[in-house]
Here is the input.
Amino acid sequence: MSSPGCWYRSVPSSSKWVKFTALQNKNLDAAKSQGKKSLRQGVWTVTFASMTAVHKNGGSVNIHRTSGSGDQAVTRSQSPVSPKKGRKSRSQSPQKVKRAKSGSPSPKVKRSKKASESLVIPPSVQAVIFGSNLLTAPAAAALKDCLQNTPPISRIPLHVAASKMVKNVRSFLTSIGRLRVGDKFDIHFPKNHTIDSGVQFSLHPNFPLSGTEILNLMQETRITLLDSKNGQRNLLPFGHDMTDAEQLDSQLFMVSGPVYVAYDSNYDTQKKGSVVHCCSTPGINFAYSSADVQEFTRLKASGRSVLRVPTVKARMSQIWYHTLTVMAEASVAYPVLCAIGCGEFKGSYDSVPRLWATTLAEILSKHDFEFAAIIVSLPTFGNNDNYSEFAAALSQEPNLKVPVLLVENFGMLTIADRLASQGHYSGVLNPSDVEAVRKGHIGMFWDDGHIALEEIIAMQTTLLLHHKSINRSVWSQRPDIIEYDSS
Here is the structure.
């Protein structure tokens, strides 16, 4: 039997649990005197049974569980981060919120110089945290609550999940004015369609939604464009055949706004709850987009196709930065991200998940978005082990400016919904498509065609209220420009 105390999970590429006794705080001085550096001063290592845990300014400290009295109680706070200047806090019901302008200053999150709390992980949870020394006590409490009370992700096929929700979604859209089932991903509404604020609707029998709430959700929808050089670009009409340049430009667009989560982790109906902030943006499509393949890959003399790594990373960095900036401006405290572009879109390039993970780590080391913590949901399906790729990449980044928690067995929306139910405004990333964000086909093939994560999010939440056919006023405006400095 191993001695009691802190046990850590290592982060090798195999992503297996390894138990070993870590150095306690009282041993840091001894370690320092032996030529190692303390946690506060840089890097120290612990080796046990040929495995090594490397701590870099707290950046790669692994989640641990303690025995007996080591599991200290954590006090929950209702305000995980300081209110942002010029921004109103969001309640559990959607309200009109004055948006901050891009780049507007806001107070820094106050963090203790040393880790304020231990984050105790249930034995059944596969998770790891980086930048744990940046955790505030309220943030540690919020993450602990999530890990203990969030239902595990459903492993049922997505088309089965869709079948549990689609009838209710159709009924809701019909009740607010949908004329007929669209062709593929279009949703047909009258041209001068309006929603009566005094009428009561419902997403499903357990989820009433008033006309006023629907209008508020629609009014809070925002379209942004990440661009520091070329100015504003136009949105495109339905049916427009995009050029290669337009497809590439569309990766810099985003549609975002608050949504309700109407279904639980098993895609069963749930009672009306809280609002989360949803950001829809495309990833790089190495599988189906000839424009992306031409821009981001090259042929070697042998005829083998390889990635243009600097070009790929530059675009990935833009997408991460755009997502996190929009969430920060919406006063999100806990972004819950996913492995965008790491499913079918990665095509035959196995290095794509590691590049997405590396660029996320680099962005989080360069910019302080003032979040309480970031969670990345990385469930393993089949042979796609994105969890190990992200863990390995983040373990190499010593200068994170925010704690990052990776989880394998919780869904992105379910985590965000749990955080919101406890009073913490959270955000999610919808891995969308260039057609959706440039032409307004939000939700894509939810009612007729290929079911992927975007289609599930469209049915599981009120995301379809971002669709151009429903929310014409937003799509008639030019996008807000988000400045981006690549340096």
Observations:
- The chain has a mean pLDDT of 77.
- The radius of gyration is 23 Å.
- The first strand starts at residue 7 and ends at 8.
